Structure formats: C-alpha cells, structure tokens
Amino acid sequence: MSNVSEALKIEDWRLTSAEDLKALQKQILSGRDPNRPEIVVCHGTGCLANGSEKVSDALRTALADAGIEAKVMPGIKTTGCQGFCSRGPLVLIRPGGLFYQRVKPKDATEIIEKTLLKGEPVKRLLYKDPASGDTILNEQDIPFYKLQERVVLHNIGKIDPTDIADTIAAGGYQALAKALAGMTAEQVVEHIEQSGLRGRGGAGFPTGRKWRSALKAIETKGRPVYVVVNGDEGDPGAFMDRTIMEGDPHAVLEGLILGAYALGAEKGYMYVRAEYPLAIKHLEVAMVQARELGLLGENILNSGFSFDVRINRGAGAFVCGESTALFTSIEGKPGNPRPKYVRSVEEGLWGRPTILNNVETWANIPLIIGKGPDWYKKLGVPHSTGTKVFSLVGKVNNVGLVEVPMGVPVSAIVEDIGGGVPGGQPFKAVQTGGPSGGCIPYSLKDTAVDFDSLTKAGSMMGSGAMIVMDEGDCVVDVGRYFLRFLEEESCGKCLPCRLGLSRMREILDNFSRGRGSEQDIEDLISLAQAVQDGALCALGSSAPNPVLTTLRYFKDEYLAHVNNQTCPAGVCKELITYTIDPGLCTGCTSCARQCPNNCISGRKKEPHTIDTDQCIRCGICRETCKFDAVRVS
Amino acid sequence: MSQSVETLDEIVERYPGQPEYLIFMLQDIQSTYGYISEDSMKVVCDYSGVPLTQGYSVATFYQSFRLDPRGEHEVRVCLGTACHLKGGQRIVEEVERRLNVAAGGTTEDLRYTLSTVNCVGACALAPVVVVDEEYLSNMTAKKLEKHLKTLDYDLENETKEHGHV
Questions:
Q1: In this structure, what CATH number is given to the domain that contains residue B154?
Q2: What is the DSSP letter of B107?
Q3: Which residues pair with A481 in a beta bridge?
Q4: Is the pLDDT of residue A462 over 70?
Q5: What's chain A's average pLDDT?
Q6: How far is A254 from chain B (nearest CA, A)?
Q7: Do B100 and B128 belong to one domain?
C-alpha cells in the first residue's frame, strides 16, 4: 500500500472533484476527536539539533508504558519548526496548547504521568517570561507568540508535514479545488493583482504584475511556459523559506499549481538549496502524496488541467538565488547571470516565458485565492500588504522565526517579540536584507517594516533575515564580513563586482588594522556607487548597501578605526589587547592551559598575565574564563 | 566496501543522458563516493554528451563539489551572519590549528575535512558546527575539541575492530 492510502486507510483514492476533497476532509476530521489530547513535538532543524528526536522517542515509549494510548491521539505528532528556537526542544499538549520548553528525554515519563494522567503541568518545563517573571502555561499566552500574526505559518507546528491527511484536514488544497472548479485562469491572475502581494524574495516586485507580464509574453511567444520556486535561500541568517518548505510543503506546492493553472504551465521546478536536506525530503514526500490523490500530475481533480514538478537541488552557489543564474543552473550549467535587457518573465528558463517566485510568495497564493484579495489586503499596510516572516537572530533573547503584519515598527519585532538584547541594553542596529541590505540603527527603531520604509532608511526588506547587533559588534567588521561573503560568491562575470568588491574589502581590511585615512572613506563611497551602477546583476549592485548604510549611521566608528586606531566594539583583532583583571582572576589556570600560543603565565591561585606581544587574540581565554576576568581593550 | 555501493554506470543511468541532468549526476556521485574523480567525470560527460571542460566548469563553479577525496569525518563550521557575530571565525581558526589543516582542506591521514559553509539556516543555534550530519549548537572551540576527541576515540576503536592500519 502507498504512503497516503496507508495513512488514510483507503485503497486507491484519486480525488476527482472539489466535492471529493471536501468529503475527504470531512472524513478525516470525523475520525478525530477534537477534545482528545494530542502530544506535539517540534522537529524543526533547531529542535532536532537540540535532541527533539530523542524526546519524541522517549515520549512514545513513556506513552506505551503508561498504557493510555487509547486516551490520546494516536502516536506523537512531529511538526515543522514552531519558531521559538532558542527554547527548544519544544513539546506542546493540544488542544489546550500547554507549552513545555527545553524538554529532555528524561522528562517524558513525568509529562505522561503528571500531565496526561493527572492533568497537572510539569512546572519546571513551563515558560517563565523574563520581563514579568510570570510562569506561562499556554503557547498562545507567551508574548513571543501572542504578538505575532501567523498567517503563512498558520499550519506549521500544527500539522505533520509528511502526512497529507493532516494538510487536508487543515483545509489544504481547497483553494486549488475552488480555482479549478469555478475560476478562470484570468480570474486567478486578477486576484493576485488585487491582493497587492509583492515578492517575498527581496526586491518586492508586485507578483500580480509579474504574472500579467508573463501572460503578455505568452500572447506573442506561445507556450510552453514554466513556473519555478526559488528555494535557494542563500542570505546568511535567513531560514524562513526553509521552515515553510519543511513545515508546510503542501502550501508551496498548492501555490505553484495555482500559478501553473493561471499561466497554463505544464511543468514546474523547485530549486532548493542542497544545504536543506530535510526541506527537499519533505517536498518530495508531499509531491508523491499529492500525485496519489490526484492533486498533482495528469488531469488534476478531473479538471483537464495537468501539471507536474521536479526538484533541483542547488550545489552551493549564492548567486543562483538570482533569477537568470537560477535558470542556467536548472539547465545544468554554471549559474552565471545574464543582463536583463529582456526580462526573465519573457525569456526565462530554456528561453521561454517563466515566472519565478520565492517560497514564501508561493505559500501566500493559496491564502489569497482561498480567502480572497479583499481579506488579504486588510493585512499589512496599503503598499505592502499581507504579513512577512522574519528570522530573528543574533544578539536577541528570543531567537527564532516570527510572522507579523507588514508595517509594524522594528522595535515591536526586536523588543516586544524578541525580548530585546540579552543584558537589557538597547540594540545597536538591526541588519535586514542580508548581504544586500543594510543596518537600521537604534535611533530609527520606529521605522515601519515594509518594503518602502526600509528602502527609504537605506536598507531593504530582503528575504527576511533580521540580525540584531549590540555594542559588542563592530560595523567595520560586519561590513567586511558581507563583502568577503559576496566577493567569494561573485561569479566573476562582470568587472565591477569581481574587482570592485575585492577592492572595497581591501579598504575595509585596512580600516580594521587601523590604517587608512578619511580620504579612503570618500574613495570607498565613490567606489561603492560605481559598483552599484555598473554591476550586471543584483548580487553586485546591492553589495555595497551594508557598507553604505553603516557609513551613513555609524561614521564615527569608522573614524575611530582610521584616526584613533581603536575599535570601539572590541572586535577588530589588530586594534585590541587582551588583559587579565588581577582583581577577578582566581588563578584557576584554566586559560593558561587552553591558550594555543602558551602566552599566559602565572602561578596556581595567583592572578595570571597575558604576554601581549605573543598573544594572537584568538579570544579563547575569554571564552574559557568562568570569572569574567579577561578584558578586551 | 559493501556490495551495496552503486557503480558509476548505475548512478548516471538514473537520469536521461542530457546536459540538464549533469548536476544531478555529479551530486549523486559525490554523495556515494565523497568526491568526483577524473574517471567519474569522464563517465558523466560521456553519458550526458557534454565536453569534459563543461563538466569541470560546472564542478568548479559550485562550492559543494570536491575533486579530491575527503576525510572520514567532515567538520563544517557555519559562517552565516549570526554565527559570525557569535564567534564562528574563532572556531575555524582554532580547528585549523588543532587539525593542522586550512579551511577547505583534508588532513593528511584523511581523517578530517574542514570546511566553512555560508549559513546552514540554523541561526538560532549559533555558532553552529555540523560534524558529518550532526548539528552541534552553541559551539565553542573547547566543546568542539571535546566532540572531535570522541570521534577520534570511535575511529581508533573502529580501526582496531576492522584490523585496518
């Protein structure tokens, strides 16, 4: 028996109409008692890395040992990333939403015995709000979740992504059925246009307008046309698309099928980073299950419309997130971009009209078709409708994945949802948009997070990475980091990017060593503008953004490096010295033993000293010291 | 080697012999053999009908392809932004010192390959190091050293069991 029919206990069920799909949903739901407790374990990448697989195994064993399997929903449900990664592994007991954090396998028996048998919470596993000091029982009352609006992520954390029955029970594929049964392709495109949806991949191009252009191109060029998912989420610090592909793969697939229907495409591609093996696996499983139910492949839901998809694994090239490079990569060649005198909607994959949208954009499509553009437009602000998913990382308490309506201020995300910087001081800057974006300083914390406001502040939405920096992060170092990243990832085809970025990085390297002059800063700006104007694709033309915005908001810090040979944040190696505070050092010898250059000396139980001439400033002593006695100046 | 390892021909024949499947074949070969040897490149290029130069142009353009054998264990240090801010670079430098190999290289005894990766998308765990398939969270040079020691230990025991030199 196949996966799906096994899961549904049905032999060979191919859905042939919207009514069929509704009947199946009803059937699945009727087999489930909404009041029966259900144990849910997060199997997102973060929780898995923290051992959640062992937790779910332990819970399964504990459940069997207690002999109460009949009283709870069968099995332990494992879901995609629930977002609150810094608190993982996460375990939830539904329907109430009782929220356990940092669960270990040894907690399993107690959870079953106390919570499921006696109905009492295991207090030590509950979340304690650091701000108020209150212990919070349920997921929905935790500020991290309460202040979010989970629309695109609504299924993630609730469904088992490898079981299509869960997706269908939650209303999956209803939008597709609705479109195939009662909407023309033209109406689908109109809905997307009216919704105001803008591409979630970075530039924020209106999705409806893109689809309309593709339709126009088809008028002159005819078919075939292609629809493509850009799952090459390369921005360091971003993992929204990964979470969507892993946690709700059917949403992406359903969106893509709707796009294919709107354009009359028969073939689609999903280009997914090879670094995301779990996402690839879940998408593959989703495709097999959807085909078995007749939701993908030949004659979908008996509508006469046929469409199928192939997954292409990326091979480790950041530039392949750029549309034309992505197409050449699918064609089996090195991912070199081409100039876009002719846009890729007209001449994309195999030289044919193609629409390429990012994962999150595709996942929005079923919502718009299902609930209508008017519903969608009510979310967010007029020129940036809907919600946006952000990965909130760096120096912030609640690291994880958050979804908010467009237009909320930066501070609402970083401080209210994210819980601010560890230690309580204000953040220094928030980096948005990855290597193509910029920094928003604390003074602009009220900036609205929407496409236009971020661009106005010199940054950009990008794909949704939000990296919080505190006073211990150096802007020169961050600028160097991004430039080095892009220098390595530049395909080398055009000169401004290939040489311009190297030269910019060299100038910053000098700054980090305390060399350079104010004239160099001026030269850096002028070079940055030349790269912006001259580069072939967006990788190069947006590359100077991190440097330009930090120069705009943190020029003093650059000047400190150049004029005073100091790094105020204490990061740039050649400008700092490590010393040991004799008042705090207990002489435990731990740092001396760890020092790779053997340049820490001192007797046992007496303060140690660092030979600064020999010190290579690796920072291991500071990491090792339990008494915070190693200082950086 | 166990009998279940597929031959080169078996791997390439999973796909139609067309240039668009070149990357698929190279990926499958690498996941089976760890790297792309000259012989396997010839087989792939013959089968998909592209010149050898094009095969190498693809294999050297994409970072994930290796043309040399890799170590028994692969240590991948993430250098995404979050990991960078939390000291990923320091970890790289420390492992370079400890294993006496530059990032991107393999130790002489073919035990370890050290590489850096541009964000594995597990930023909440920063700094992250992926050893083989295992994600290690909130790493420090010290913790990583401990972990590598347990691998060393396993490796030695394995060698004893199997009687390899």
A1: 3.40.30.10
A2: -
A3: none
A4: yes
A5: 92
A6: 24
A7: yes
Cα dihedral across residues A69, A75, A77, A78: positive or negative: positive
The verdict on a CB contact (< 8 Å) between A238 and B82 is no
Q: To the nearest whole angstrom, how far is the Cα of A334 from the nearest Cα of chain B?
A: 5
Three-state DSSP state, A293: coil
- Inspect the interface and report whether the beta carbons of B20 and A330 lie closer than 8 Å: yes
Residue A402 tokens, joined? 């958050």
Complex ipTM value: 0.86
Which residues 565-624 on chain A approach chain B with CB closer than 8 angstroms?
594, 596, 618-620, 623-624
Closest CA to A80 of A446, A374, A400: A400
By Cβ distance, the residue of A45, A234, A333 closest to B122 is A45
A315–B64 C-beta distance less than 8 A: yes
On the CB side of A472, how many CA atoms lie within 13 Å of its CA? 13
Q: Distance (Å) from the C-alpha of residue A183 to the closest C-alpha of chain B?
A: 35
Q: Do B85 and A473 touch (CB under 8 A)?
A: yes
Q: What is the pLDDT of residues A524-539, one digit of tens each?
A: 999 999 999 999 988 8
| Neighbouring C-alpha atoms within 13 Å toward the C-beta of A571 | 27
Q: CA of B34 to nearest chain A CA: how many angstroms apart?
A: 14
Please report which confidence band the pLDDT of residue A8 belongs to, taking 50, 70 and 90 as the band edges.
low
In chain A, where the domains are located: 32-146, 172-377, 380-469, 475-564, 577-632
| Nearest chain B residue (CA) to A50 | B137
Dump pLDDT digits (tens) for B136-152.
988 988 888 888 888 87
The answer to the question of residue B66 being in a domain is no
Band the pLDDT of A11: cuts 50, 70, 90: low
Query: In this complex, do A316 and B64 lie within 8 Å of one another by their Cβ atoms?
Result: yes
Mark yes or no for CB contact A315/B123 under 8 Å. no
Asked whether the beta carbons of residue B87 and residue A623 sit closer than 8 angstroms, the reply is yes
Mean pLDDT, rounded, for A345-372:
96
Provide the whole-model pTM. 0.91
The rounded distance, in Å, linking the Cα atoms of A268 and A290 is 15
- B52 shares its domain with B104: no
pLDDT at position A159 is: 94
Helices (H), A381-517: 410-411, 451-456, 475-489, 495-512
Spell out which residues of chain A touch residue B65, defining contact as CB-CB under 8 Å: 315-316
Residue A1's pLDDT is what?
A: 35
Interchain CB distance below 8 Å, B124 and A315: no
Residue % of chain B over a pLDDT of 90: 47
- Cα three-residue angle A582-A583-A587, rounded to 5 degrees: 55
A400 and B CB contact within 8 Å: yes
Which residues on A lie below 8 Å from B141 (Cβ)? 618, 620, 623
Cβ neighbours around A571 below 10 Å, total: 19
Comparing CA positions, the residue from A318, A258, A316 lying closest to residue A290 is A258
The architecture that CATH gives domain A380-469 is Roll (3.10)
Radius of gyration of chain B (CA): 18
Residue A329 touches chain B, beta carbons under 8 Å? yes
Architecture of domain A32-146: 3-Layer(aba) Sandwich (3.40)
Question: Is the per-residue pLDDT at A499 higher than 90?
Answer: yes
Task: Report yes or no: A470 and A431 within 8 Å, Cβ to Cβ.
Answer: no
Residue A342: predicted pLDDT: 81
Q: Which CATH number fits domain A172-377: 3.40.50.11540, 3.40.190.10, 3.40.50.10800, 3.30.530.20?
A: 3.40.50.11540
Q: What is the pLDDT of residue A435?
A: 87
* Of A294-303, A500-509, A621-630, minimum mean pLDDT range: A621-630
Residue B104 is assigned to a structural domain of this protein: yes
Phi, psi dihedral angles at B84 (to 5 degrees): -60, -45
3-state secondary structure of A316: coil
Cβ contacts of A473 on chain B, cutoff 8 Å: 85
- B110 shares a domain with B46: no
